[in-house]
Structure formats: structure tokens, C-alpha cells
Specification:
This protein is α/β, with parallel strands linked by helices. About 25% of the residues lie in helices and about 30% in strands. Keywords: DNA-binding, Phosphoprotein, Transcription, Transcription regulation, Two-component regulatory system.
């Protein structure tokens, strides 16, 4: 697996607790905080627009519990952080990666994050395919058939995979981070907020756009944007090729 940082969101309705967790997470290597929430309803409203790999949730909150939120985010790994030990069995019933009791120590938090990381690195380096949940049911998808991947316009949690035979499929509830964790890191790269491409479709490129070998309905080459955030990784990968 490449050394890409895992992206997380944090939810805790108590501000001091949230601030402390944010400080601790800043000391955990290989992790980036996308957003913190102190209101579960705000998280529910916004999470579809965020690109994250896992979440850290408080359990006891007004309106909704952490378990309610975990059910909504059921395709993402969850770490529960709470002052109450009695919820641990419930947490594991819903497949939580870990359950940490407050006050949280840095060492204990690192352990929990390592468990998340291991979920993302279970693939073997030479794997050529993976199983995904799609709009047509479970599918075995071979990586060498994928040309590029785009966010679904209908639901940004879903991603559309476009294949060389001009077919496509919608993969349900997966982040770009989750996809990049299973795709071969030498062959696929993220180029902007909405897209991952296979390097084999790159024909020409400059610092802002990529002309691909794919054609649109008018038989013109499809041009994709290369954003500043992902430019360095794209250039480095091409240099290695």
C-alpha cells in the first residue's frame, strides 16, 4: 500500500473533548482530519460531500447516539470514543473497529488507528482484482479493465467505474481513499476532487489538464482536469513509470 494518509471525521458533542481528540489525532502519523463535528445532525447533513475513510464517534449525545450515526455510516470503519464502558458489547455488535474509553491516551488512540489502517492494507500487493458492492449486486472487478473512476452525480458516496469495453458500473458507498487502498498504486492516481484515472489512458498532459486516449460521443478526446492538490502525486507517479 502506498503511504497515502487516511482521512477521518470526528464527532463529539462536547467541545473540550472534541478539541482534545483533535490535538491527539494531530500526533498520529498517517492520518488527516477532514472535519470535526459537535452536532450529529450536521454530520448526517454533510458527510456525503466529504471524502473520508473512517470516523471517530462519541456514543452519548442528545438527539442521536453514536450507534445511530454508525448505522448511517455503516460502510465506513468506526472507532467509538466514550466515557462509558458499558456500551462496548453493543459497539462490537455493529462491527466497530475499536472502542476507546475516555480519558483517551495517545497510545490507545494510535492502537485504534492501526486497526483501521490494517483494514485498508489487507490486499496483497500483486492482487489484480477485488470484490465490490455495486448497483447490480456483488461484483468481481479486474483492475486492468478500469479506465477511470468518477464520483456519482446522484450520490457522492457512490463511484462510477468506466471500463475499456465502454461499459460502466456504480460501486456503492466507497470513498476515493477506500478505492486507492485496493487499486495498484503504480497504475492509478487521483487527479481532482471527482476523479481517479488509470495511467494508461494518459495521452498528453500539462499542469492543469490531461488529454486522454478516450473519446466522447463526437469522437473528440476526453480532457480531464488536474487540480493543484493532486498534481505533485500525479507527476511523481509518471516519473516512476
Amino acid at each position: 500500500m502506498s503511504h497515502r494518509k487516511l482521512r477521518c471525521i470526528i464527532l463529539d458533542d462536547e467541545i473540550p473533548s472534541l478539541k482534545f481528540l483533535k490535538i491527539l489525532m494531530g500526533q498520529v502519523e498517517g492520518v488527516e482530519i477532514v472535519k470535526v463535528f459537535n452536532d450529529p445532525l450536521a454530520l448526517i447533513k454533510e458527510y456525503r460531500e466529504l471524502d473520508f475513510d473512517f470516523c471517530i464517534l462519541d456514543v452519548e449525545m442528545p438527539q442521536l447516539t453514536g450507534f445511530d450515526i454508525a448505522e448511517i455510516l455503516r460502510d465506513y470503519p468506526v472507532i467509538f470514543a466514550t466515557a462509558y464502558k458499558q456500551y462496548a458489547s453493543e459497539a462490537f455488535d455493529i462491527n466497530a473497529v475499536d472502542y476507546i474509553t475516555k480519558p483517551i491516551s495517545l497510545q490507545r488512540l494510535k492502537q485504534a488507528v492501526e486497526k483501521v489502517k490494517s483494514q485498508f492494507s489487507k490486499k496483497t500487493p500483486d492482487s489484480t482484482y477485488a470484490q465490490f458492492n455495486t448497483d447490480k449486486g456483488k461484483a468481481l472487478i479486474h483492475f486492468d479493465k478500469i479506465l477511470f473512476i468518477r464520483n456519482s452525480d446522484v450520490d457522492s458516496r457512490d463511484k462510477i467505474l468506466f471500463f475499456e469495453d465502454e461499459t460502466d458500473v456504480i460501486v456503492k458507498n466507497i470513498s476515493f481513499g477506500g478505492l486507492l487502498a485496493v487499486l495498484p498504486s503504480s497504475g492509478f492516481v487521483r487527479i481532482n476532487k471527482r476523479e481517479i484515472i488509470s495511467l494508461r489512458i494518459v495521452k498528453f498532459f500539462n499542469s492543469e489538464e490531461i488529454v486522454t486516449t478516450m473519446k466522447d460521443q463526437s469522437d473528440k478526446p476526453i480532457v480531464l482536469g488536474l487540480s493543484e492538490t493532486y498534481r505533485k502525486a500525479f507527476m511523481e507517479l509518471l516519473a516512476l513509470g
